[in-house]
Predict the 3D structure of the following.
Amino acid sequence: METTLCLIRHGETDWNREGRAQGLEDIPLNETGRDQARRLAARLAGEPWTALYSSPLSRALETARIVGAATGLAPQVEPLLVERNMGAIAGLTFAEREARFPGLPLDAIPGVEPLADLTRRALAAVDRIARQHPGGRVLVVGHGGLFGALVLHLSGEAVRLPNTSLTWLAGVPGRWRLGTVGDARHLEGNEG
């Protein structure tokens, strides 16, 4: 039985706004991020969901709790959903990264989780969740880098996912199809 996964990138943080690499740093949502999560929750309320999973990082877990309050689901923490380890560039803006590591590819920067490892971990996470909920419709709150790696793996296209956007997967462990990517209609008309 196919499982449908609704992948949700967490709401905005101050570091998102400043363009800083967050990685495993536990940066909380800002007020814009909380508002984004409330708008998302209103969009998802009333739909039939089977379960709700979240990364353990606070920006994702708070987003999941806001969604859970509207959907009647308690978030289950899945450690594999954490963001990519950004190693030596955690906390840096892109300009600061370029000044420190000019022209160096991300995978070559000390401490950065290799894309291949990130992709394997992302696939292991969605496979694990699908095994727990065959035929279900599951909400999964995580991170842009993690979900971006899945999109790249499944479509061959690199994407930047907006905060609280929805990306849909359907399938069974080991065989996933990508649906809509980066849907953030619930934020239209709210650029603040």
